[in-house]
From TrEMBL:
Entry keyword set: Membrane, Transmembrane, Transmembrane helix
TM helices/strands, residue ranges: 37-58, 79-97
Keyword Hydrolase: no
Record's keyword annotation contains Magnesium: no
Protein name stated in the entry: TIGR03943 family protein
Record-linked InterPro entries: DUF1980, DUF1980_C, DUF1980_N, UPF0703_membrane_permease
Top-level taxon of the source organism: Bacteria
Pfam (any one): DUF1980_C
UniProt domain DUF1980: residue ranges: 8-95, 150-240
Source organism (scientific name): Amycolatopsis iheyensis
Origin organism lineage: Bacteria, Bacillati, Actinomycetota, Actinomycetes, Pseudonocardiales
Length: 240
């Protein structure tokens, strides 16, 4: 790869990192705590690329002056045309993981809950409807022997997955970045969500069907819905 190409790519890649860190798109790939490192890494790459380009331009100007004194000339190099395809990558950020990732990856109960081996979960807070992360809901449904979910109205937010004739509400859990993501899923009973598009974000209220989250079904509890509403996709699509 030519030096001009290397320098251009370095600046564009660094600029892309800074861009997604500032506008929040980085949350599609890593945890929020990684933002300062992304900004710092991108800024260093932009600085290194800019310094290298300035150095090369000064060297090229000195060489051109020497060639002029000796009667030589060279045509301009077209390396800058490489900006066109690279800018397309810079301007269009890949989407966050979604329904396809859930279908390809086996759902499971979070490792922290499995390690606890049915340790006592704290009581749910008071209220007519208790909002929970899908992660916590699945953990309680699979491992809480005291039945803190039973008979309680719960609100869950996630995206729609259609697989094997079943409609699921899902979230992806990450510990560091999207590369280590795994799904936690809830089976939506009643058919109200069957017509919704895959990857549509919804908020459901209802109750767990006790005893339905087992090892045989990858800890996917059944959920009897009282209401379903579509909602905008959150800026941060993952759970932790």
């Amino acid at each position: 790869m030519r030096r001009e190409t290397q320098n251009i790519l370095l600046i564009l890649l660094g600029g892309a990192l800074v861009k997604i860190a500032v506008n929040g798109d980085y949350l599609r790939y890593v945890k929020p705590a990684q933002q300062p490192w992304i900004i710092a890494g991108g800024a260093v790459m932009v600085l290194l690329g800019a310094v290298a380009i300035v150095r090369d331009l000064l060297a090229a100007r000195a060489a051109a002056a020497a060639d002029h004194d000796h009667g030589h000339s060279h045509s301009a190099r077209p390396a800058w045309l490489l900006l066109v395809p690279v800018l397309a990558v810079f301007l269009v950020a890949p989407p966050a993981l979604g329904a396809d990732s859930v279908i390809r990856t086996e759902a499971r109960v979070p490792a922290s809950a499995a390690a606890a081996n049915a340790a006592a979960f704290p009581p749910l807070p008071a209220g007519n409807v208790v909002p929970l992360s899908v992660n916590e809901f699945v953990s309680r449904a699979g491992w809480d022997t005291s039945g803190t979910l039973n008979g309680r109205a719960i609100s869950l937010t996630g995206f729609v997955v259609h697989t094997g004739g079943t409609t699921l509400l899902a979230r992806l859990v990450i510990s560091c970045c999207a590369a280590d993501a795994f799904p936690v899923t809830v089976r939506i009973r009643g058919g109200e969500a069957d017509h919704l598009a895959a990857d549509a974000w919804i908020r459901v209220t209802g109750q767990v069907v006790p005893g339905t989250a087992t090892k045989d079904n990858n800890y996917t509890p059944d959920f009897t819905t009282a209401s379903i509403d579509t909602v905008p996709a959150p800026k941060d699509p993952y759970e932790y």
